[in-house]
Structures are given as structure tokens and as C-alpha cells.
């Protein structure tokens, strides 16, 4: 992999299990996150829902880009993502499966590029490809003075 890009987002703890997410794009509005009961109040999406949305969005945008490179229609597809949460062998909740269903408009479905795109579009989805392969994640915990408390 020769090309690398980085971005940074910030999460500020508001109260209980609510966090405000600030993105690195000035025009992007902040996003609130929460957890479902019994931890949170379910007032905002949690991480599993954002992961499902990211997968659905990435796959949809990748397919749309392939089919309609120059002439993107205003309305072209609808995407439904179903995320299954299950317990692993250690009884921990995990995202067990994600099913993405994309419905194309007639205009997109009749594109001469459709068949070629259906064979390749998901390989160009940054999020889906990473999730399928596994994501290396490092974690570092520090105190307010910047002292590293834990790192893996």
C-alpha cells in the first residue's frame, strides 16, 4: 500500500454514555452518540449503528460512483442495512453479521456499466474491505498530564 491518508476526529464526553463527535471537516455538523439502555438513553446512535451506516454508505457510494461517474442522478438508490448483534464464545456482544441491501433506481439499473460495476464495486469500498480483512487498532491511555497509562 503506497498511498496513505489520515484524518482525526474528536469525541468529547458529555454525560452518562453520551459523546459529542467533532469531525475534521468544518462544514460537517457534530454528531451525538449514546448507548441503548441499560447503559444509555438511546437518544443518539451507538457505535454499532454508525458502523452499519458506514458500511451501507460506503457500498452505496462505491456502486453509485462506478455506475454514474459523470451523471449522478439526484435519486438513485435506497440502501437498507441489517446488523446482527450476537454473543461470542466469551459471552461478549459483537457485531456478528451485517446484511446490506441496495435497491437501484430504474435509471441506474439500466446502465450499460451495471454488470461490470456489480463485479467490482465492493472491492473499492474502503470501509467494507477493511472490516472484511480486519483492522489493526492500537490503543493508548494517558492522563491529563500526557503520561501514558496503558498502550497495546
Structure description:
It is a single chain. With 152 residues, the protein is an alpha+beta fold. It has 2 domains: 1-45; 46-151, K homology (KH) domain (GMP Synthetase, Chain A, domain 3, 2-Layer Sandwich). It is 26% helix and 29% strand. The chain contains 4 helices and 7 strands, in the order E-E-E-H-E-E-H-H-H-E-E. It has helices at residues 47-67, 106-109, 114-120, 126-133, and strands at residues 10-15, 18-22, 31-33, 77-87, 93-104, 140-142, 148-151. The strands form 3 sheets. A 3-stranded antiparallel beta sheet has the order 1-2-3, with no helix packed on it. Strands 4-5 form a two-stranded antiparallel ribbon. A two-stranded antiparallel ribbon has the order 6-7. A hairpin with a 5-residue loop joins strand 6 (140-142) and strand 7. It is globular and about 60 Å long. The model has no long low-confidence stretch (mean pLDDT 91).
Q: Distance N terminus to C terminus?
A: 23 Å
Number of strands: 7
User: How would you sum up the global shape?
Assistant: globular
Strand content: 25-35%
Work out the helix count: 4
- Major sheet description: 3 strands, antiparallel
- What is the helix fraction of residues, given as a range? 25-40%
Strand order of the largest sheet: 1-2-3
Whole-number total of structural domains: 2
The CATH H-level superfamily of the largest domain is K homology (KH) domain
Integer average pLDDT: 91
Q: What is the CATH third-level topology name of the largest domain?
A: GMP Synthetase, Chain A, domain 3
Computed structural class: alpha+beta
Low-confidence stretches: none
Integer-rounded radius of gyration: 19 Å
Instruction: Give me the strand/helix succession.
Output: EEEHEEHHHEE
CATH architecture of the largest domain: 2-Layer Sandwich
